[in-house]
Amino acid sequence: MSRGKRPKWMIDIAVERMNILFERAEMEFITHPERSHRYVELARKLSTKYNTKIPEKWSRRYCRKCGKFLYYGHNSSVRLVDEKVSIFCGECGHVMRIPYNKEKKNKRRAKYESIKKRNDE
Ligand SMILES: [Zn+2]
């Protein structure tokens, strides 16, 4: 296949497949974590192949370093440190720091608070 930008319909399909892979990864993590890690690998391959980003919804659900699926409260934890979101990977110990985006602040705060609540339960 030629390099460069793919037609939009092709990218849409790739994004849809990535969503499905991550949804499965989330569903199967508790029973088959090794499958989840494999799904992440496949999604990342799609991302490279179609030169398109992993959907933002899932971009923090895998470790940038070791590529494992991250399940908050199981092999991962999220903290707010110095106005940055820190995502800790329990698989390799890598910490990803994401700057706090002011425009999305309120939205993200709600999101992380709901995750935190889930972790505390
Ligand atoms: Zn890792």
UniProtKB/TrEMBL annotation:
InterPro entries from the UniProt entry: RNP4, Rpr2/Snm1/Rpp21
Keyword annotations: Cytoplasm, Endonuclease, Hydrolase, Metal-binding, Nuclease, tRNA processing, Zinc
Primary site of residence: cytoplasm
GO cellular component, one term: cytoplasm
Catalytic reaction list: Endonucleolytic cleavage of RNA, removing 5'-extranucleotides from tRNA precursor
Pfam families in UniProt: Rpr2
Enzyme Commission code: 3.1.26.5
Cell compartment(s), UniProt: Cytoplasm
Named cofactor requirement(s): Zn(2+)
Single annotated GO MF: ribonuclease P activity
Cofactor binding: number and manner: Binds 1 zinc ion per subunit.
GO BP terms: tRNA 5'-leader removal
Domain of life: Archaea
Residues the record lists as binding Zn(2+): C63, C66, C89, C92
Sequence similarity: Belongs to the eukaryotic/archaeal RNase P protein component 4 family.
Record HAMAP family: RNase_P_4 (MF_00757)
Function according to Swiss-Prot or TrEMBL: Part of ribonuclease P, a protein complex that generates mature tRNA molecules by cleaving their 5'-ends.
Subunit: Consists of a catalytic RNA component and at least 4-5 protein subunits.
Name of the featured protein: Ribonuclease P protein component 4
Naturally occurring in which organism (per UniProt): Methanobrevibacter millerae
Taxonomy of the source species: Archaea, Methanobacteriati, Methanobacteriota, Methanomada group, Methanobacteria
